TrEMBL record:
<feature type="domain" description="Isopropylmalate dehydrogenase-like">
    <location>
        <begin position="5"/>
        <end position="349"/>
    </location>
</feature>
<keyword id="KW-0560">Oxidoreductase</keyword>
<dbReference type="InterPro" id="IPR024084">
    <property type="entry name" value="IsoPropMal-DH-like_dom"/>
</dbReference>
<comment type="similarity">
    <text>Belongs to the isocitrate and isopropylmalate dehydrogenases family.</text>
</comment>
<dbReference type="InterPro" id="IPR019818">
    <property type="entry name" value="IsoCit/isopropylmalate_DH_CS"/>
</dbReference>
<protein>
    <submittedName>
        <fullName>Isocitrate/isopropylmalate dehydrogenase family protein</fullName>
    </submittedName>
</protein>
<dbReference type="Pfam" id="PF00180">
    <property type="entry name" value="Iso_dh"/>
</dbReference>
Length: 357
């Protein structure tokens, strides 16, 4: 039987608490379904600064390439020592150096939580390597120029190659879902850049004739999302629009603390919650681990498809059902109005996984 090697990057702030809760839950599910995981802790963020004076050390990056996938806790890079601030943050560094070009961010209503838009089940495909976040891009460097003390030019980069691959990823997912893709851009104003994004997505759409396609300007899209979130299935957009739209979508259907994401290319996948390191509540065992747990469920689905191993998606489903059952039973962390601690919440999920039939 194959054993899957999974990297564990605990992260900063609430990271270690929510990541260890996640590992406990997945260990219980793996035991139940007789799946072998080899969990490997790797230093990143504060832990790596202490050990190697580098928040994203080369040894960790190399070790990640030997993993089948990994979980990454959030990082508090704003608090790192001055010498590290000019570098990319850990998440940006991995997305860029490993070319994890697709940031997949679902927004789905969950039981026992409040949604301001009623039932919704959509997924945002955010291009993760260029667009308006040109952080050390090969064409334009930082993408920002100080012209005079009081004038700055900030730019965006759009390439056919990057748009084609994110569009294919989005359309492939749509084929497995409700067969609908919405392209989000601002081609009436940023005519060349987001115009290319729209045009190339529409070209890729030709290869998926069963998929219905529509498109909106980013500003109009925020209104449509609030008014009729349930009508959307797969949304594809550039980096910054996707970042903002997915925070909005996550909060609309429940809370940012519940929102999962995965960063992928053809060979690697990194599970990462949408929220940050929440330093204000770190170390108190009260953070909500659902975002990172559901991100790890997404990692299971990705691994399942890549290795053609149905057991892994079953395992993900078992965890997801465990989380839903726990919420339905009224066990919740403080941010959702409950009183369970992070570890109590994880134990409640483990109990439900063990007793699942
Ligand atoms: P970053 O720049 O790292 O993304 P941020 O400024 O977006 O950080 P977060 O760290 O996401 O901020 O925190 C925003 C607020 O949400 C804080 O009050 C924090 O306590 C709360 N929060 C974030 N994640 C969780 C969680 N998993 N459980 C409970 N509360 C959370
Ligand atoms: Mg944030």
């Amino acid at each position: 039987m194959k054993s899957y090697k999974l990297g564990v990057l605990s992260g900063d702030g609430i990271g270690p608490e929510i990541v260890s809760a996640t590992v406990d839950v997945f260990k219980a599910a793996a035991e139940k379904l007789d799946v072998k995981f080899n969990w490997t802790d790797l230093p990143m963020g504060w832990e790596a600064i202490d050990k190697y004076n580098d928040p994203t050390p080369q040894v960790t990056k190399e070790a990640l390439l030997q993993c089948d996938g990994w979980i990454m806790g959030p990082h508090d890079s704003a608090a790192y020592p001055e010498e590290h601030k000019a570098k990319r943050n850990p998440s940006g560094e991995l997305r860029h150096t490993l070319d994890l070009y697709a940031n997949v961010r679902p927004a789905k209503t969950m039981p026992g939580t409040k949604s301001v838009v009623g039932e919704a089940d959509l997924v945002i495909y955010r291009e993760n390597t260029e667009g308006f976040y040109t952080d050390r891009n090969m064409y334009v460097g930082t993408g920002e120029w100080q012209i005079t003390e009081d004038v700055v030019v900030s730019t965006g980069v759009f390439t056919r190659k990057a748009v084609e691959r994110i569009a294919h990823a989005a359309f492939k997912m749509a084929m497995q879902r409700r067969k609908k893709v919405t392209i989000v851009h601002k081609a009436n104003v940023i005519k060349l850049g987001t115009g290319l994004f729209k045009r190339v997505c529409l070209e890729v759409a030709q290869q998926y004739p069963e998929v219905t396609v529509d498109d909106y300007h980013i500003d109009a899209m925020t209104a449509h999302l609030v008014r009729r979130a349930k009508d959307f299935d797969v949304i594809v957009t550039e980096n910054m629009f996707g970042d903002i739209l997915s925070d909005l979508a996550g909060e609309l259907v429940g809370s940012l603390g519940l929102a999962p994401s995965i960063n992928t290319n053809e060979n690697q996948a990194m599970a990462q919650a949408a929220h940050g390191s929440a330093p204000d509540i770190a170390g108190r065992n009260i953070a909500n681990p659902i975002g990172i747990m559901l991100s790890t469920v997404m990692l299971m689905d990705w691994l399942s498809e890549r290795h053609n191993d149905q057991k892994l998606s079953e395992l993900g489903k078992l965890v997801e059902n465990g989380i839903n059952k726990t919420l339905e039973d009224g066990v919740k962390t403080g941010d959702l109005g409950g009183s369970a601690s992070t570890s109590e919440f994880a134990e409640a999920i483990v109990d439900r996984i063990k007793s699942a039939v």
